[in-house]
Automatic annotation (TrEMBL):
<feature type="domain" description="Glycosyl transferase family 1">
    <location>
        <begin position="170"/>
        <end position="320"/>
    </location>
</feature>
<dbReference type="InterPro" id="IPR001296">
    <property type="entry name" value="Glyco_trans_1"/>
</dbReference>
<keyword id="KW-0808">Transferase</keyword>
<dbReference type="GO" id="GO:0016757">
    <property type="term" value="F:glycosyltransferase activity"/>
</dbReference>
<protein>
    <submittedName>
        <fullName>Glycosyltransferase</fullName>
    </submittedName>
</protein>
<dbReference type="Pfam" id="PF00534">
    <property type="entry name" value="Glycos_transf_1"/>
</dbReference>
Length: 362
């Protein structure tokens, strides 16, 4: 069985991390082969370091998806997020699993892209939604209910801890942000919250890791708020796990989320999370127990300062976070769900393939 994962981004971040976790979890199955397909770019080095077989595309288009399908000869397409799913539906008659990783608030309402996704839905054998809110807030969710299920992200705890050992540097970070610098992650708000924190604690040290379409705006905001002595923007870091493990807080200011992988990594490492109360974060963070949720910038800054300056509070939150992680992650159950749907798709593909060509749309 050959599974072709299709993604639309050129850089490594949350959904890309999920796919690499999936591929790694099936690496011991002799009858399952998985490949990664996306536009070429910085992602290629990230995949090389993870020993993931990569088929690059020049761009995200129907013609390129069809070209790679002819090259790979997959049995199943596992398409990640809306754009990859729609292009896969236009490119092939192979069984497609659509995997929606983000609850994009911009999909709310009867918008064109939501309608396009709905019209492509008959091509999907199944749709995984990364959180309950991601499914329920999709405008046409009731029409997709019979082929949808919630599949919350999970994580290999041993792998996260192993990656912390690969970095030999030492860090002293109060607040860390890891993620794409995009509209979804709300970088302007991120800087505003950090500015509020510096007013309470002028010696605080924060680091921002990630790249994206709004990184110029981010750097401008750092300068405009005179935060150069407090906030370090590091850009892309291939393995930030040691940095995360030696931070006091993971800060997230997203407008919307699915189940962010960096939040799962923080939990495994016992790092408290301070976040806006969005989507999957509501399920991950026990407010006041493993971290804090707030939609008020000043309150977020106050809570972070309490954690930074109160070792007993930090220790309590860290202990509760580690205990929560021990009960949350079940990689085998996650894998079993995927395998069940892969097997069904594989049987369907080979049943329909008898006596006919069954791959690329004409």
């Amino acid at each position: 069985m050959r599974v072709m994962h299709v993604l639309s981004q050129r850089v490594f971040s949350g959904a890309e991390n999920v796919v690499c976790q999936i591929i790694a979890s099936f690496s011991s199955y002799p009858d399952i082969e998985m490949v990664y397909v996306s536009p070429d770019g910085p992602i290629s080095e990230s995949l090389r370091l993870r020993n993931v077989r990569f088929y690059p595309m020049e761009k995200m288009s129907v013609s390129e998806v069809r070209r790679v399908i002819r090259l790979v000869h997959p049995d199943i397409i596992h398409a990640h997020d809306r754009r990859a799913s729609v292009l896969a539906a236009l490119s092939t008659t192979l069984p497609i699993i659509s995997h929606m990783h983000v609850n994009d608030k911009r999909r709310k309402g009867l918008k064109f892209k939501s309608l396009v996704y709905l019209l492509s839905a008959p091509s999907y054998r199944h749709i995984f939604w990364v959180s309950k809110s991601a499914f329920e807030e999709f405008p046409f969710s009731r029409l997709l209910a019979n082929k949808s299920s919630i599949l919350i992200n999970t994580m290999n705890k041993d792998e996260v801890r192993r990656r912390t050992l690969l970095d030999k540097q030492e860090y002293a970070i109060d607040v860390l942000f890891i993620g794409r610098i995009t509209y979804q992650k709300n970088p302007q708000r991120l800087i505003h919250v950090l500015h509020e924190l510096t007013l309470l604690n002028p010696t605080v040290k924060a680091c921002i890791v990630g790249t994206g379409t709004m990184q110029n705006e981010l750097e401008n905001e750092i300068r405009a708020n005179t935060l150069q002595d407090n906030v370090s923007y590091l850009g892309y870091v291939e393995n930030p796990m040691k940095m995360l493990s030696q931070s006091k807080i993971l800060l997230l200011t997203s407008r919307y989320e699915g189940t962010p992988m960096v939040a799962l990594e923080a939990m495994i490492l016992g790092i408290p999370i301070v976040s806006t109360p969005v989507d999957g974060m509501l399920d991950l963070v026990a407010n006041g127990v493993t971290g804090f949720l707030s939609d008020d910038d000043h309150e977020m800054a106050v809570k972070m300062n309490e954690i930074i300056t109160n070792p007993l509070l930090l220790a309590s939150l860290s202990k509760a976070t580690l205990e929560g992680a021990d009960h949350l992650f079940d990689l085998q159950a996650y894998q079993d769900v995927l395998l069940s749907h892969y097997r069904k798709c594989y049987q369907l593909a080979h049943k329909k393939a008898k006596g006919m060509i069954y791959n690329v749309r004409s």
